[in-house]
Automatic annotation (TrEMBL):
It comes from the Bacteria. It comes from Croceibacterium mercuriale. It holds the Pfam family GGDEF. Residues 333-470 form the GGDEF domain. This is GGDEF domain-containing protein. PROSITE patterns: GGDEF.
Length: 475
C-alpha cells in the first residue's frame, strides 16, 4: 500500500496513454475487456478500462489481487470451472467473466529493494478459451510499458515532494532569523563569462561578493587570477588553457585571497561557449566552499589524531611511517624509530581508576610533543604504546642521549587515594635505525619491538637500540 500511495495515482482522471495501452491489449488478444487495475486496501480501481463502464470493484471480487499477491502472471481459461473463481459475482453475473489473463505491474520504491507489485494489466473475455503463450508475451510486453509509465509517475511525485520540502525549508530558514547563515554562505555561487576575442569579462553580483570587490568593478582575467597564490594560479591557468585547447570543461578547487585579505576555498567550473561549432567564449560558476573545506580538514585531523593524547592516530602513524621510509630511502637520509611502552600503567588503572589513567596518558602525550622534539612525529599505537619517528639530525646525532632525556621526561609519580606510596610510572624504549635490511614499516617496527622487549626483560624504565646488523646493543 505504501508503494501505491507513493504513486499518487488513485482516483485520478483518465489519461490517454493508459487508455491506449488497455485498448491495445484488448485488440491484440481479441478480448472485449482490458483493464489497468491497481489494488487498494478495500477495492481494485481501474486506471484505464476498455469495454467496461465501472471504475472499481470490491477487493474480494477481484481476480487481479491474485497475480499481485503471487507476483506472477495468472491465466484462468474458464472461471466457471475454476474452484477459486466460479462463485465470484463477476462470473455468475455481469460481466460474466470466463477467461482471464493478467500480469502484475511492479514499481521500484527504493534502489536497494526488489520491485513491488501494485496492480495488473489484464484481459477478460465472456467466452472460455485456451491460453496462448503469445497472449501472455503480449501482456508482459505491454505491462513493461505501463511499468515505465508508473516509474515516471513515481519520479514526478517524488520531485513534487522534494520541491515542496525545499520550499518549506526556505520558509523555515527565514523564520529562524538567519540561524543557518553559514549554510547559506556555503550555497553562494557566482557566475562568470569572458569572450575569447577581446577578453571582455562579465561577473554576477555574487562573484563580486566572493572576491569582496564592489559590484560592477572592472576586472580583467589577469587581475582575477592575481587573487590566487602562485601554485593555485598556475593550476587555474592550466585548467583554462586545457579547456581552450581541447574543449573539455574543467572543475578545480583552489585557495584564494580576497580583496579584503581573507583566505577562502573556492570551486570553479568552466566550459566553452560555441557558435557554429567554433569557441567564442568561456563561461562557468564560482562557489565559495570555505566552510565545507574547513569541516573536511577538521574531520581529517580528527581521524588522524588520538583524541586523548593529541598525538597521531595509529592509522596516521602507519601512513606517515611508510611515506617517511620511502623518502629517507630515496634521499639516503637517516631515520630512527622509537617504540615507547608505559610501565605500571595497568596498576594505575586498577588502583586509581580510568580517569587517572587517562591523565597519565595525556602527560605522556605532552612529553612526546615537547618543543625539544620539534620536527619529530609522535603517535599512539594503542593502549599505553607509543611510537616516535626521528628524522632531525640533532636528535639522531646522539640517539642514546635523546632516549635518555626521553626516559626522564616520561617518568611521573601517580598519587592514588588510600595507597601507601605513589605509583612510579616510567617508559621503556626500544629503537631501531633504518637500514638496507630494515627498510620497510614491518621490519622497522619488528626490530624496534625486539629492542623494546630486551629493555623490558632487563629493567623497566630503560632503553635499548637494535644494532644495524640485526643484533641488539646494550642499553
Amino acid at each position: 500500500m505504501q508503494a501505491l500511495d507513493a504513486l499518487e495515482i488513485l482516483d485520478t482522471p483518465p489519461e490517454r496513454e493508459f487508455d491506449m495501452v488497455a485498448q491495445l491489449a484488448a485488440e491484440l488478444l481479441g478480448c472485449p475487456i482490458a483493464l489497468v487495475s491497481l489494488i487498494d486496501t478495500q477495492r481494485q480501481w481501474f486506471k484505464a478500462r476498455y469495454g467496461l463502464q465501472i471504475s472499481d470493484t470490491p477487493l474480494e471480487q477481484s481476480f487481479c489481487r491474485v497475480p499481485v499477491r503471487l507476483n506472477n502472471p495468472l491465466i484462468v481459461p474458464d472461471a466457471r470451472a475454476d474452484p477459486q473463481f466460479r462463485d465470484n459475482p463477476l462470473v455468475k453475473g455481469d460481466p460474466n467473466i470466463r477467461f482471464y489473463a493478467g500480469v502484475p505491474l511492479r514499481i521500484t520504491t527504493r534502489p536497494d529493494r526488489a520491485p513491488v507489485p501494485v496492480g495488473t494489466l489484464c484481459a477478460i473475455d465472456s467466452q472460455a478459451r485456451v491460453a496462448d503463450p503469445h497472449d501472455l508475451r503480449v501482456l508482459e510486453t505491454l505491462g513493461q510499458v505501463l511499468e515505465t509509465m508508473l516509474a515516471a509517475r513515481l519520479a514526478e511525485a517524488r520531485a513534487r515532494h522534494l520541491a515542496a520540502q525545499y520550499k518549506q525549508a526556505l520558509v523555515e530558514k527565514d523564520r529562524l532569523h538567519r540561524q543557518l547563515h553559514q549554510a547559506e554562505r556555503l550555497a553562494q555561487i557566482g557566475s562568470w563569462r569572458f569572450t575569447l576575442a577581446d577578453g571582455q569579462v562579465e561577473w554576477s553580483p555574487q562573484l563580486y561578493a566572493i572576491y569582496q570587490l564592489p559590484a560592477g568593478s572592472v576586472v580583467t582575467v589577469d587581475q582575477a587570477f592575481d587573487f590566487f597564490p602562485p601554485a593555485d594560479r598556475m593550476r587555474l591557468q592550466d585548467a583554462v588553457d586545457e579547456t581552450v585547447r581541447t574543449g573539455r570543461g574543467f572543475d578545480v578547487e583552489l585557495t584564494m585571497l580576497t580583496a579584503l585579505q581573507q583566505e577562502r576555498r573556492v570551486r570553479s567550473l568552466g566550459e566553452m561557449e560555441l557558435q557554429d561549432g567554433e569557441p567564442v567564449a568561456m563561461f562557468g560558476v564560482f562557489k565559495d566552499i570555505t566552510d565545507r573545506h574547513e569541516l573536511e580538514t577538521a574531520l581529517r585531523h580528527a581521524a588522524d589524531t588520538d583524541e586523548l593524547t593529541l598525538l597521531g592516530s595509529r592509522k596516521r602513524c602507519n601512513a606517515l611511517l611508510d611515506q617517511t621510509i620511502a623518502r629517507c630511502v630515496a634521499e639516503g637520509a637517516p631515520l630512527a624509530l622509537v617504540l615507547v611502552d608505559l610501565d605500571h600503567f595497568k596498576a594505575v588503572n586498577d588502583q586509581c581508576g580510568h580517569a587517572t589513567g587517562d591523565e597519565v596518558l595525556r602527560r605522556a602525550g605532552e612529553a612526546l610533543r615537547a618543543a625539544w622534539l620539534a620536527g619529530s612525529f609522535a603517535g599512539r599505537m594503542g593502549g599505553d604504546e607509543f611510537v616516535l619517528l626521528l628524522t632531525e639530525p640533532e636528535l639522531l646525532a646522539d640517539l642514546p642521549g635523546t632516549m635518555r632525556r626521553l626516559l626522564t621526561e616520561l617518568r611521573q609519580d601517580v598519587e592514588c587515594p588510600g595507597a601507601r606510596a605513589p605509583i612510579a610510572v616510567s617508559g621503556t624504549l626500544g629503537a631501531a635505525w633504518l637500514a638496507p635490511d630494515c627498510a620497510d614499516r614491518a621490519s622497522l617496527l619488528l626490530r624496534a619491538d625486539q629492542a623494546l622487549y630486551q629493555a623490558k626483560n632487563a629493567v623497566r624504565g630503560t632503553a635499548a637500540i637494535a644494532g644495524q646488523d640485526g643484533t641488539l646493543i646494550a642499553r
